[in-house]
Amino acid sequence: VDIAHSNGKAFYISGLYILSINVVFQAHHVTRSKRGQVVGTRGGFRGCTVWLTGLSGAGKTTIAFALEEYLVSHGIPCYSLDGDNIRHGLNKNLGFTATDREENIRRIAEVAKLFADAGLVCITSFISPYTKDRDDARKILESAGLPFFEVFINAPLEVCESRDVKGLYKKARAGEIKGFTGIDADYERPEAPELVLKTGEVTVNECIRQVVDLLREQSIVPSGITEEVNELFVPENKLKLVQVDAITLPTISITKLDLQWVQVLAEGWATPLKGFMREREFLQVQHFGNLLDDGTINQSIPIVLPVTTETKQRLDGCAAIALEFQGTLVAILRQPEFYEHRKEERCARQWGTTCPQHPYIKMVMEGGDWLVGGDLEVLDRIRWNDGLDQYRFTPRELKQKFKEMKADAIFAFQLRNPVHNGHALLMQDTKRRLLERGHKRPVLLLHPLGGWTKDDDVPLDWRMKQHAAVLEEGVLDPTSTIVAIFPSPMMYAGPTEVQWHCRARMIAGANFYIVGRDPAGMPHPETKQDIYEPTHGGKVLTMAPGLTSVEIIPFRVAAYNKTKRAMDFYDKDRHAEFEFISGTRMRKLARCGENPPEGFMAPKAWKVLTEYYSSIQKDQ
């Protein structure tokens, strides 16, 4: 090679390096920490390399792409370098001699260093059979101050050969491929990898969990990224000691609404919160709609405990406080912090209105002038003994149910009203679309809100009866549907609240979320017009930070098709065929004991509704 015509660059010719000294390394003006502030949605520099090594067919590519998908969906910038893909471009001039394999790995390590230096988690999936080559790759990364994690994909040769997706083992056995690793070329097993994944024994999801745990332990990814639900119940082996402690502590008497929030926190729906919000968390939520101390975690609504001035004066300075409901100790609040409850500002930010007739705002305004936050230790599972506790599954319990059902897609539907066939149509259509996308076992989480609701909403017990009737009539498939109660109170805070509804279902394992018209909305108490623009909830969800691991299924408008005598997706070009049946009209028909148009609601489900309104009239 004529160096005089090479501009001082370096060339490689199979096994031969031709180098120039006329190359000077140039330092970046942007530091890694500065770059980390703008790369990804969680902030912080996370550059590193996860080096997957193992035999062909061990599962390197499968794990690499699944890990990439998981990290990106959780807001962690990531890129996967695959062995086959690289040989189609950057390394297409390399063969499989020992020398070329060494150069293949060297180049990949240098590319991985650039990706990691840019702040990405770089995943490499290469057989990389030789210890020296892998050690050299580690030196390239670590000499640049970048973490390197060697992950051995340990699958026995017979397992890899039985998979043989590419047919390479068959060709190697037939002598058509020479020097094939594991057949007539050695694979040098890693002696001290950071992680070993036995893909012949555990699932892909379990492998991903182990890698994510490794990255979390090494502070590459925040703890909030993990799927672990943060329950706040006292461990059984410590319960007696904590109960004795609780008896000795000063107490705060909490309301039923407060207890519902204790349940939400205790069961882990608001992971990673450890209790009622202290002022720092409250301010983050009020001003940014996120928790910011462990990455960027969507938390659109404050979860707070209001107390009176007298209570604040009595307990300020205490190291711990017991919470009691109707004479029963339910939890301990550790390291409590009291701060001012600026009610009008809170309402203006959370609801976009301070209308005192708004039902939840009314409760806020009538509540205490102080808020107290702290870490919760909940003594026991919250039970309401209303005949519905069997439907109150925690996020962990729901995840286990999904696992038992072998669900490969979970789509959640939040509701606080009876289900009509328009709702059912949307759920049926979502399932159909998921099946068309290749999912085998999509499961519906029908998840009615079970906390406080305003007085004119249908009560929870009647709604549960109505939902059961819908399933009984086969409008929804009972074999692929889980009906459970979401313990949160309803705040009627529109697009702000719908983010909370979505993220809580994400915590429980949902990866698809159906959003309806005017979610969490209501008419303005004074003007009677919708407080929130009906489509904004769905639009906001598609833009909300921290919800990247759940796909938003937008609400398609359904109306009664007079020609089909069934609920159907509205088509403006056939407007004359459709009739919009309002909630007001539905309630009027039910109160009068009349039937709606055929096909609007399952007959047994409608019967439950008429019985409810009949019971109201009798009470009155």
Structure report:
Strand 9 and strand 10 form a beta hairpin. The N terminus is likely disordered. The protein has a five-stranded parallel sheet with strand order 4-5-3-6-7, sandwiched between helices. Strands 8-12-13-14-11 form a five-stranded mixed sheet. It is globular, with a radius of gyration of 29 Å. The termini are far apart. With 620 residues, it is of the alpha/beta class. The protein contains 21 helices and 22 strands.
In short:
Pfam families: APS_kinase, ATP-sulfurylase, PUA_2. With 620 residues, the chain is α/β, with parallel strands linked by helices. It is built from 21 helices and 22 strands.
Radius of gyration: 29 Å
Helix content: 25-40%
Largest beta-sheet characterization: 5 strands, parallel
First CA to last CA: what distance? Answer: 99 Å
What's the total helix number?
Answer: 21
The order of strands across the largest sheet is: 4-5-3-6-7
- How many individual β-strands? 22
Instruction: Determine the structural class based on helices, strands and strand pairing.
Output: alpha/beta
Quaternary state of the chains:
single chain
Overall pLDDT, averaged?
A: 90
Shape: globular
Q: Spans of 5+ residues with little confidence (pLDDT < 50)?
A: 1-11
* Beta-strand content bin: 15-25%
